[in-house]
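Thread: "does anyone have the structure for this chain?"

Original post by V.I.:
We have the sequence but no experimental structure in hand. Need at least a predicted one for the grant figures.
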Amino acid sequence: MTQPVRSGIAHDPLDVAQICASAQDARCGAVVSFVGVVRNHDAGQRIVAIDYSAHPQAPVILQELAESAVHARGVHRVEAWHRVGHLMVGEAAMVVVVAAEHRAEAFATTSALVDSVKLRLPVWKSQTLEDGSHVWTGLK
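Reply from O.Q.:
Generated one for you, tokens below.
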């Protein structure tokens, strides 16, 4: 049997299709995914790229968050991945997938896990603006 939780901080591009496929479970009638991508603007400024960096404990924290999510009622599989390094507009920065018995459980757990990752994961980003300057965001 496959692991109920898989997570990680990745330096290479995230394979969204493979991550979603890994969450499949015959007990589950719903698989909900969230893919956070680098957008081309923030706070009225044009963004061309983002450099993500993470605290050394980030993989442990992400695993704990994902393990907490898999204990939600009806949830059987959780995937939670965050990318670090240099990402261009359109690239996937975060992928969260939840497989649950029913859609309401899958949607609620996915949303709660994404919120937890955004709040608690020690990942920071330096946004490269169109003019070549950099702006740090996400500092906690």
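V.I.: this helps a lot. The chain has a mean pLDDT of 96.
O.Q.: and The first strand starts at residue 5 and ends at 10.
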